[in-house]
Amino acid sequence: MEFNIKSGHPEKQRTACVVVGIYEPRRLSEVAKQIDDVSGGHISSILRRGDLEGKIGQTLLLHNVPGTLADRVLLVGCGRERELGDNQYRKVIAQAIRTLHETGSMETVCYLTELNVRGRDTNWRIRHAIETAQATLYTFDQLKSKKNITRRPLRKIVFTVASRRELGLAEQANRESQAIASGVKLTKDLANLPSNICTPTYLADRAKALCTLHESVSCEILEKGQMEELGMHSLLAVAKGSNEDPKMIVLEYKGTEDKKAEAPVVFVGKGVTFDSGGISLKPSQDMDEMKYDMSGAATVLGVMSAVAELRLPINVVCLIPTVENMPSGHATKPGDIVTSLSGQTIEILNTDAEGRLILCDALTYAERYKPDAVIDIATLTGACVVALGSHAHGLLSNHNPLTNDLLNAGRLAGDKAWELPLWDEYQPSLDSPFADIANISDGRSAGTITAACFLSRFTKKYHWAHLDIAGTAWKSAPKKEKGATGRPVPLLVQYLLTRCFEDKRMTPTPMLPEESDS
Question: What is the pTM of this model?
Answer without folding.
Answer: 0.95
